[in-house]
Amino acid sequence: xxxxxxxxxxxxxxxxxxxxxxxxxxxxxxxxxxxxxxxxxxxxxxxxxxxxxxxxxxxxxxxxxxxxxxxxxxxxxxxxxxxxxxxxxxxxxxxxxxxxxxxxxxxxxxxxxxxxxxxxxxxxxxxxxxxxxxxxxxxxxxxxxxxxxxxxxxxxxxxxxxxxxxxxxxxxxxxxxxxxxxxxxxxxxxxxxxxxxxxxxxxxxxxxxxxxxxxxxxxxxxxxxxxxxxxxxxxxxxxxxxxxxxxxxxxxxxxxxxxxxxxxxxxxxxxxxxxxxxxxxxxxxxxxxxxxxxxxxxxxxxxxxxxxxxxxxxxxxxxxxxxxxxxxxxxxxxxxxxxxxxxxxxxxxxxxxxxxxxxxxxxxxxxxxxxxxxxxxxxxxxxxxxxxxxx
Length: 391
Hints:
Layout: H1 2-49, H2 56-69, E1 77-79, H3 81-90, E2 94-97, E3 100-105, E4 110-116, H4 121-124, E5 132-136, E6 139-140, H5 146-153, E7 160-166, E8 173-179, E9 181-184, E10 188-193, E11 197-202, H6 209-222, E12 227-231, H7 240-250, E13 255-260, E14 266-270, E15 280-284, H8 290-301, E16 306-309, E17 317-323, E18 329-338, H9 345-348, E19 355-356, H10 361-365, H11 376-386
Parallel strand pairs: 11-12, 12-15, 15-16, 16-19
Antiparallel strand pairs: 1-18, 2-9, 3-4, 4-5, 5-6, 5-7, 7-8, 10-11, 13-14, 13-18, 17-18
Helix pairs in contact: 6-7, 7-8
């Protein structure tokens, strides 16, 4: 009898918990239903009463963008199918275009060509650094925003774009028709400065940068570099898969990266024993984001490099690219990262350089055309590492 009563009591308790769980879920479903019924009501009113024309897909995309924007996280984005495809391609450091970079010059309002890829369609057409873009496909650049100009330059491989180019050397305006090709971005560029100082300029930490970094740094050391400067100004970041191997080359066996998910679970990444033991400096500015900012912070924490330039923005979230069934996607902050000493760069307000060197507005605007002697931040970094070279 006692066993029977115990069984009945246990069954009653289990049933009670079961009903509580079901009720909790029903409450949650009712809340969800209330949320989505609001969306349906808005949609219904638009369909019944709105007098203008509209694109249903554009409305859905707009709603999704608004949902993600309302998170208040400037790093998280909703991407349309076209945007999602472009971002995936950009992360491979590949795109279809004409192989040149442009910069807006505030004093003249011109779009100045600041770089031309070797062997690119632009190079083959005779376009050179400091030439100006006047028109794209018959539209004056004065009527386009810089982002629109970038989009106009890119397109499907094999398609053409018509440009009016003003030559810097002669002032002559030329009409050119360029066929877009697949462009492979060289994100790491190296050169030897005077006094055995090697300069490594890193434009991003996207796919393939770790190999480019390794090749470039080893070539500089083999060529006689006794000190290294890493320039990560205007570097928008990238992936840990490229950044961690780069730091590994420079550091002894230490913790180089800590990442935590929403539940607090995460990983710590270690470097190996091999390290490059040379005087180093990292140049940063307010546009050194994410992996670039972290790269500088870690070297500063371990006193492997002096940081020169301006205070960075402060970013502590890592994003993941998530595909959705219709080809659209999310670029969503899914991890928090901390420096080896547990510092959250966002809470700290970014990295404070060891040597603060402000760049005048006019130099910032014309950054890509500055000579090395005009670049005060580079000159300071050079002075710092030069003084540490062992004679």
